[in-house]
């Protein structure tokens, strides 16, 4: 049977019907009052989602493009920055900094382990001359399912006083409580194919007043990624360049859905999906890659023993049309990742776990009691 | 009556049903063999459309992002470049060059007039030390409907030998014969919401072997716009960053439609639409902004006398739900622009002109014989 795909990867995530139908509409002109009205509402709702009174800008780029814009708009060649790196995306922001000639210091942790806030505190406290201009943190590391302790790291950045905190929130925004103003997050980057529940193609960057101050003297070259242009246009409910009209119409629909669900419910749902998934995996006696204390609300990485990760993924796809993500780089075939981000319900987790039990059995994995995974997930759902 | 919009602007252009339905499909994972197969066919068809054996790369950006990538990947700070500027987009490439610290020399013409190839010849011939590293030309200037004489300018670039020819073909590719290899065009940038017949969101850049040689020593900083990353991934039928999956599925559909129609038919159709539109405007005794000898196959700009351009646009929208484009910057309210690019048929031109006649009459413009516009367009269609 075709066309019954269930996406359980950390992006693209499942897209609700309202967004699919919006995508299928004939585009309208982007220099019209009709489109400006849509942009005005989208901008308001983006601020609501980011819990900020400051700017949230929308670019026609992937999450990487958004994060790059969030870095290069506020820095100059040679600036010293600290970059947390404990997975594929942390490594990427190190590369971006290097590509632009920044003085990058990577603060690393093993893939699957969280960043140690004390290492940041040490560097920041030692920097009495205030040369560190920014600290870049991947909040939810998509490659490993680790949630870094942004709040504590950010408290050290605040004590430092000079450095900006720049956050890759690609798989945490819309899944985990990230109060941009309350925490004083200067730059937060995200992408549409995650918590936003629409296909890939849009990136978002929130910018604090402090970051706009830094923008004034930042000298890295930019044009398409120049956030000042987006700020100016957004204030007039328009865009500096032709925007991806259909994706924005879809976003218009999903942001309304999110407002209807409410932030607290959204965060509680992701917490519940995470807990149920992790309980189920434990119930199946499969090792989790990361500890519960640093588990991402969006992705659960499993490091199976006695059965190959990619064989599980392959059978899940073939037998049940469920797409799971694999491991990246040195974790390839060592882990599989279950995405539970965005338009994902309790029922989806039950489907996924029940199917996983069948796949494991068919692959000869016998270290579990049939039904134990589903029962463990069910317990979480019954209790929450 | 709602939802009967007819887009006659130079982008977004009308989108055929096959593409709309592809947009409405649930996204699939971008790291799957299913998606790689789509990418492989799309890449082949992009090469066909560009008439090149070299690379055509696809980025998640607007046309401006594609053109910027096409500039910054092949140059270093301080490099001398010539930029043709006779409209909004020519001016934009001057700005991009300046933003990156290039030594930009703008070669200008009045908006509505074509660039003079002799001015390029002069500069290029005088440059015996071969310091000019690139010549940037907007082929079809969207803001004015002027088609610049790329072939002649390029012949001077070829005589120079050192400089790259970088082309903004955003509203010419897929409308006008642009044989990338036969003409030796080093870099050609375009965008999805034009001749490609899908909504905005994708940019394209073709790159010649000579441009790849320049890439090796080019030093401008870049990451998301680094074409080397796209080349590497495209060779493996994948993408360096999460691609806009749904837009690519739509492009997959429209490129098949284009192949079915055939390049010669596509170009002949645009030539016919252009000729019919211009004949009709002349039949209505309305002045055209540009001369026939430099008329874009994609956009016709009209500079009405005795009736305000924006009043015409406004009434055309209100009365017939036909969207026409306005003038930009100093041409605001001085011209209106009829887009006839992409998924536009002979019938659409007849609809547009017939409606325009009604609108002109209602606005008190009496300098034409009712029916004369339609009759002039009909003559072109009957003869071709």
From TrEMBL, chains A, B:
<dbReference type="InterPro" id="IPR015422">
    <property type="entry name" value="PyrdxlP-dep_Trfase_small"/>
</dbReference>
<comment type="similarity">
    <text>Belongs to the class-V pyridoxal-phosphate-dependent aminotransferase family.</text>
</comment>
<dbReference type="InterPro" id="IPR020578">
    <property type="entry name" value="Aminotrans_V_PyrdxlP_BS"/>
</dbReference>
<feature type="domain" description="Aminotransferase class V">
    <location>
        <begin position="28"/>
        <end position="329"/>
    </location>
</feature>
<dbReference type="GO" id="GO:0008453">
    <property type="term" value="F:alanine-glyoxylate transaminase activity"/>
</dbReference>
<dbReference type="GO" id="GO:0004760">
    <property type="term" value="F:L-serine-pyruvate transaminase activity"/>
</dbReference>
<feature type="binding site">
    <location>
        <position position="337"/>
    </location>
    <ligand>
        <name>substrate</name>
    </ligand>
</feature>
<feature type="modified residue" description="N6-(pyridoxal phosphate)lysine">
    <location>
        <position position="194"/>
    </location>
</feature>
<comment type="subunit">
    <text>Heterodimer of a large and a small subunit.</text>
</comment>
<dbReference type="InterPro" id="IPR000192">
    <property type="entry name" value="Aminotrans_V_dom"/>
</dbReference>
<dbReference type="Pfam" id="PF00266">
    <property type="entry name" value="Aminotran_5"/>
</dbReference>
<keyword id="KW-0663">Pyridoxal phosphate</keyword>
<dbReference type="InterPro" id="IPR024169">
    <property type="entry name" value="SP_NH2Trfase/AEP_transaminase"/>
</dbReference>
<dbReference type="InterPro" id="IPR015424">
    <property type="entry name" value="PyrdxlP-dep_Trfase"/>
</dbReference>
<comment type="function">
    <text>Soluble hydrogenase catalyzes both production and consumption of hydrogen from suitable artificial electron donors or acceptors. This subunit catalyzes the tritium-exchange activity.</text>
</comment>
<keyword id="KW-0808">Transferase</keyword>
<keyword id="KW-0032">Aminotransferase</keyword>
<dbReference type="GO" id="GO:0019265">
    <property type="term" value="P:glycine biosynthetic process, by transamination of glyoxylate"/>
</dbReference>
<protein>
    <recommendedName>
        <fullName>Tritium exchange subunit</fullName>
    </recommendedName>
</protein>
<dbReference type="InterPro" id="IPR015421">
    <property type="entry name" value="PyrdxlP-dep_Trfase_major"/>
</dbReference>
